Amino acid sequence: MAVSKKRRMFDIDMPEETGAQPETFPAGKVEDRSNRRGPMAVAIAETAESTRERQSLEASIRAENDALAHEHARLIRLGLVVDLVPLDAIETHMLVRDRAKGPDGELDTLKTSIREIGLSNPIRVEARPDGKFELIQGYRRMMAYRALHEETGEALYATIPAAINPSGDSVDSLYRKMVDENLVRKDISFAEMAQLALDYAADPLTQENDPDKAVALLFRSAGYQKRSYIRSFIKLVSRLGKHLQFAPDIPRALGMALVARMEEVEGLVPMIAKELKAFTNRSVQDELALLRRYAGTPVDDLMDPPAGKPAPLPTPPRKATGGARTSFQFDRREGRGKCIAAAGKLEIRLGRDFTTIDRRRLEQAVKLMLDQLD
């Protein structure tokens, strides 16, 4: 029996092995296990990132707060921080006010303005170590608020807007701040400014005891001519101030003329003081008319003299030093001048070169002056 040889169904040529890795094709997604983190690692990473963000935010907030604190401190140093300050926490003892004592005829107008539109300009105070405040500027505004609070009882007027200065300024500096604000007021009189210079010089906490020198310190912002007027009014206020009831109403020209007469005429001050003391129940016009009479100026605004007004006194005797002679000082834009009058002689001394003036103009001016004396 013959055995048949099986026949091969397929002939497959297998590639020869070259040592290269066979190419494979995964059937599904393959996870990269090299970057795989567990839940704990993920939570730690997220916590670290959140911590970094929070620290960055806190640092930014601290920087902003520091900037705001520095700005607030700068505004405090400049006195630009405004707050509502209780009226009963404000004291007025450190500085002598430049306002004359007595009724204030314009206070009602100020109160009406505050009621209708509020306070447009805050007062200025200085913080004190005891928690209270010392008034620097705004006495009338504060008094208007106090009057409104007493009249209405409203809590709105129990506090007042105030710019708060830090404590530590010298008394001299506080006086200057008060004066500089008041110099822009149109209604402050030369008598009030003169009284302030007298009070400043008398204050034991200030550095100057001479009222004339105090004018240079207090009214440094004013011009030379205005300071000269204030010094003249110091003479008037210091000699007659306690006898005057309406010193702030004395015009500049009248005050200057009266001071010149007081320096020119011996014994004039006691005579004026005596008549003022005896002249009770007088008005502003009464007092000004009396002063004009002594100053030798017309009483133009006195239409109907009050009953019982004393008759004009005779002209007091003039000073005499070795013969009839009169001298007085006066103020001009060129500076302070001096006039000396004697029998047959009139001399004017002033820091000006009169030779530069045309002779005809000078002659005409002298003639007009002499005509005024007739």
Helix/strand order, N-terminal first? HEEHEEHEHHHHHHHEEEH
Overall number of strands: 8
Mean pLDDT: 76
Number of helices: 11
Largest sheet: 5 strands, mixed
Could you list the spans in which at least 5 consecutive residues all have pLDDT below 50?
A: 299-322
- Write down the Rg: 45 Å
Overall body shape: elongated
Overall structural domain count: 3
Structural classification? alpha/beta
- Tell me what portion of residues adopts beta-strand conformation: 5-15%
How far do the termini sit from each other? Answer: 187 Å
**Helix content range of the residues, please?**
40-55%
Q: Numbering strands along the chain, what is their spatial order in the largest sheet?
A: 1-5-3-4-2
What's the topology here?
Layout: H1 39-77, E1 81-86, E2 90-91, H2 107-117, E3 123-127, E4 133-137, H3 139-152, E5 159-165, H4 171-183, H5 190-202, H6 211-218, H7 224-240, H8 252-264, H9 268-278, H10 284-295, E6 325-332, E7 335-342, E8 345-349, H11 359-373
Parallel strand pairs: 2-4, 3-5
Antiparallel strand pairs: 1-5, 3-4, 6-7, 7-8
Task: Write a structural description.
- The protein has 3 domains: 63-169, Alpha-Beta Complex (Conserved hypothetical protein from pyrococcus furiosus pfu- 392566-001, ParB domain), CATH 3.90.1530.10; 171-318, no CATH class; 319-374, no CATH class.
- The chain has 11 helices and 8 strands.
- Strand 6 (325-332) and strand 7 form a beta hairpin.
- The chain has helices at 39-77, 107-117, 139-152, 171-183, 190-202, 211-218, 224-240, 252-264, 268-278, 284-295, 359-373; strands spanning 81-86, 90-91, 123-127, 133-137, 159-165, 325-332, 335-342, 345-349.
- The model is unreliable at 299-322 (pLDDT under 50).
- It has a 5-stranded mixed β-sheet with strand order 1-5-3-4-2, sandwiched between helices. It has a 3-stranded antiparallel β-sheet with strand order 6-7-8.
- Helix 5 packs across helix 7 (224-240).
- By secondary structure, it is an alpha/beta fold.
